Amino acid sequence: MSFEKGFFNVGYLDSLSYRDTFVHRLDPRVKLIATIIFIVCVVSLPKYEVSGLLPFFIFPIFMTTVGEIPVRYILKKLLVVSPFVVFIAVFNPFIDRKVLLSVGGLEITGGWVSLFSIIIKFVLTIGAALLLVATTSFIGICEALGRMKVPEVFVIQLLFLYRYLFVLLEEA
Where are the domains of the chain? Predict the structure, then answer.
């Protein structure tokens, strides 16, 4: 898949938000707050706490299953932006050389553990954000932000960004 096709296929993600499932019918404010709390909880775990991240997969699996969102599509979106995170995380094994576990001569350093922690956190947080957009229209998200007293100028800027993103993509 080309970068342009994978990154800019925003129309399909938006069309997913108009399905009629239990998750889609939830108030956008509930989904927005749940996603924000989820992301804060994921990123607040320590860098060596890989096993503590595993239960967090329940939320995206639930949203994907109940919301009838194609897993393959979400994984493709994650794959498109993953090189940016991998590029940052790949340096951890060289920087953090503290040995955390030694099994039969094989030493596992903190750098390797934090590398996997960063990648898992990336998958969980970006996946949750994608699932929010896939289950809630962008207009619904902006209306929810407005009802949550986010400054109107910020909400209007988001709406303009969203509207003109499609115009620019059509012109390109």
Answer: 3-137
